[in-house]
């Protein structure tokens, strides 16, 4: 489950705390991303967040999560740098299928793949759809995070769910006011 070799309980505990801190930094940046006003703002914050999450999963030995996070960095960077989001997403579908086949180690091992697929698809639309995709994706990541020992990831995904529900309600309230 983890790549740490326990030599001294204090060292292992400090290492575990540092690994969880990397996930926490990634989470803060991810939450901030959904409060950005445009999709490019969302994507730029998510790119930086993904770097911290990649380190987090690497040090946990959570290889499925690590691979998907690194893959998402490239995908989201492509979304950010081009206007071909839908085409890029279509090109990634075979990668999701291949990774799902190669990384399958029980149903929970493909949750990050499904979560990434949902989020990747939703990011090709307007912000409100991206937020809904993030809500679905966060639920799947919560289960995976529990399994791989990303306890900060588990808690932060729950908070991310709440944050995105608030963003969604706030955006829908603005639409309601315009109609009224």
Q: Would you mind describing this structure in some detail?
A:
By secondary structure, this protein is mostly helical. Helix content is 82%, strand content 0%. The chain is built from 7 helices and no strands. It has helices at 9-33, 39-60, 63-81, 85-103, 111-122, 127-148, 151-179. Helix 6 packs antiparallel against helix 7 (151-179). The protein is globular and about 50 Å long. The termini are far apart.
Topology diagram in text:
Elements: H1 9-33, H2 39-60, H3 63-81, H4 85-103, H5 111-122, H6 127-148, H7 151-179
Helix pairs in contact: 1-2, 1-7, 2-3, 3-4, 3-5, 4-5, 5-6, 6-7
Structure in a nutshell:
It contains 7 helices and no strands. The chain has 180 residues and is mostly helical.
Keywords:
180 residues; mainly alpha; 0% strand
Distance between the termini: 54 Å
Number of strands: 0
Beta-strand percentage range: under 5%
Main sheet properties? none
Helix and strand content put the structural class at mainly alpha
Q: Count of DSSP helices?
A: 7
Unreliable spans: 1-7
Q: How much is the average pLDDT?
A: 85
- As a percent range, the share of helical residues equals over 70%
Secondary-structure element pattern, one letter each: HHHHHHH
* Shape annotation: globular
Rounded to an integer in angstroms, the radius of gyration calculated over CA atoms is 17 Å
């Amino acid at each position: 489950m983890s790549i740490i070799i326990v030599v001294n309980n204090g060292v292992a505990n400090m290492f575990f705390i540092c690994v969880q801190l990397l996930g926490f930094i990634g989470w803060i940046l991810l939450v901030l991303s959904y409060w950005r006003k445009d999709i490019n703002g969302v994507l730029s914050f998510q790119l930086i967040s993904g770097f911290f999450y990649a380190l987090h999963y690497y040090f946990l030995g959570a290889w499925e999560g690590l691979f998907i996070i690194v893959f998402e960095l490239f995908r989201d960077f492509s979304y950010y740098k081009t206007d071909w989001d839908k085409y890029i997403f279509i090109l990634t579908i075979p990668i999701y299928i291949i990774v799902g086949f190669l990384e399958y180690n029980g149903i929970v091992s493909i949750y990050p793949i499904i979560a990434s697929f949902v989020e990747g698809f939703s990011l090709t639309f307007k912000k409100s759809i991206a937020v809904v995709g993030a809500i679905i994706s966060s639920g799947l990541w919560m289960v995976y995070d529990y399994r791989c020992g990303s306890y900060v990831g588990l808690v932060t995904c729950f908070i991310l769910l709440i944050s995105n529900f608030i963003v969604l309600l706030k955006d829908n309230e603005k639409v309601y006011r315009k109609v009224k």
